[in-house]
Write a structure and sequence with these properties.
Length: about 400
């Protein structure tokens, strides 16, 4: 299934399938040639755009309101930061904190428990302006792992440590926990991070695992594979966000509790460079600023480096399909944002803006997303679902739109 809706301020104009087939990039003809801004001019006012997701997996109808609500809150947190003058990287971190604090997402509070019944989280963040990155893997006892990743990034931007030492950008396990505490991030006991939902899911998965281990390896191999696929499809994975500020800086972030019943110490794609997220401002070789955040079974995003590949393929809308379609029953999702600075030809040259193209796609049963610009009064949310009767991992849903952010140069 492939469907699009177009978003531009308060106006919407849906695109039909015929229009999609006419262009390799659905909005290619609407992009204006990039203009170099006058360095002596600063945009009047503030603005920006955020797109978030609450994980690729299965979002039950009974909890649809909660999933949408947390996406709305995450968008609002990011927009509040943008309106206060924060850059994209701070806004995207704020969005992730809201997603981690929700008991309904597999990130931070309420994350999946590992084989030992403990919560270990992964998170990463990337700044498109500096191309610097911060990440933590298999970290326990920290309520908001993305704050540790963001602090690693900001500390690295300060330069070398004493005696010329290189600051870390990726820490794991106990070392990550101790570094976080040493840099003022408060600890949170693991038992307080577990919720009734995550604990009951752990008990359920443990029973399923015990049953699967009792099955005969040869005679019941097919049944075991089906059980494994059902487990992956039924849970939520990495949450994420992508942001552009009014200066055109982009940033991306992801956070995850990892797969249910994972081995202690396992680090998923949410922490790996080029896999969980990617952000890169426009440069001489690339006319567009692009930010990507992925979600899905880590092996496939590891092997494909899906986050980074989205940047280098001109047709960002359909890259994810060809990558994920190369494997059998791949379960995952991605959100992508790209933008360029433009000047409206029919208007005064003092009117500048940023044209933002965005999408989400998934092969899982569903994916909950939210998006908002600083010009909007509230966020829009949507639970994208595969068509009834289709098999997760063998079908792809794609939706997206465009937003134009305008500003007046002083």
């Amino acid at each position: 299934m492939i469907g699009f809706s177009s978003y531009a301020g308060v106006m919407e104009s849906p695109m039909n399938s015929a229009e999609e087939q006419q262009h390799s990039s659905p909005l290619a003809t609407s992009w204006s040639k990039k203009e170099e801004p006058n360095k002596n001019q600063k945009p009047k006012g503030v603005g920006g755009f955020v797109l978030v997701h609450a994980g690729a997996g299965y979002h039950s109808e009974s909890k649809a309101k909660e999933y949408k609500h947390v996406c709305k809150r995450a968008c609002q947190r990011a927009v509040d930061q943008l309106k206060a003058g924060a850059l994209a990287v701070e806004a995207v971190a704020a969005a992730l904190v809201e997603l981690e604090d929700s008991p309904f997402t597999n990130a931070g509070m309420g994350s999946n428990l590992n084989l030992s019944g403990e919560i270990e989280c992964d998170a990463s963040i990337m700044d498109g302006k500096s191309l610097q990155y911060g990440a933590v893997g298999a970290i326990s006892g920290i309520k908001n792992p993305v704050l540790v990743a963001n602090r690693l990034l900001s500390e690295a931007q300060k330069g070398k440590l004493s005696a010329g030492r290189i600051p870390p950008c990726f820490l794991v396990g106990l070392g990550a926990h101790e570094w976080a505490i040493g840099h003022g991030i408060p600890p949170c006991p693991s038992e307080k991070m577990a919720t009734k939902f995550s604990l009951s899911a752990y008990k359920r998965n443990k029973r399923k695992m015990e049953v699967a281990e009792e099955m005969d390896t040869g005679r019941n191999q097919t049944k075991k594979k089906r059980l494994s696929a059902e487990n992956h499809s039924g849970c939520l994975d990495t949450v994420g966000a992508v942001v552009v500020d009014l200066e055109g800086n982009v940033a991306a972030a992801v956070s995850s509790g990892g797969l249910a019943m994972k081995h202690p110490g396992r680090v998923g794609q949410a922490a790996h460079y080029g896999c969980g997220c990617w952000a890169e401002n426009a440069c001489n070789m690339n006319s567009y600023s692009t930010a990507v955040s992925t979600s899905g079974i880590p092996q496939y995003t590891h092997y494909t480096c899906l986050g980074q590949k989205q940047i280098f393929d001109e047709n960002v809308f359909f890259t994810s399909y060809f990558i994920m379609a190369s494997e059998d029953r791949v379960l995952g999702g991605v959100i992508v944002l790209r933008c360029c600075r433009c000047v409206e030809a029919q208007q005064s040259q003092n009117i500048q803006g940023i044209l933002v193209e965005f999408l989400w796609s998934h092969t899982t049963e569903s994916m909950c997303v939210g998006y908002m610009s600083a010009q909007d009064s509230k966020a829009k949310t949507h639970i994208s679902r595969l068509p009834p009767g289709t098999i997760p991992g063998q079908s792809l849903a794609i939706e997206g739109g465009v937003c134009r952010l305008m500003s007046v140069a002083e």
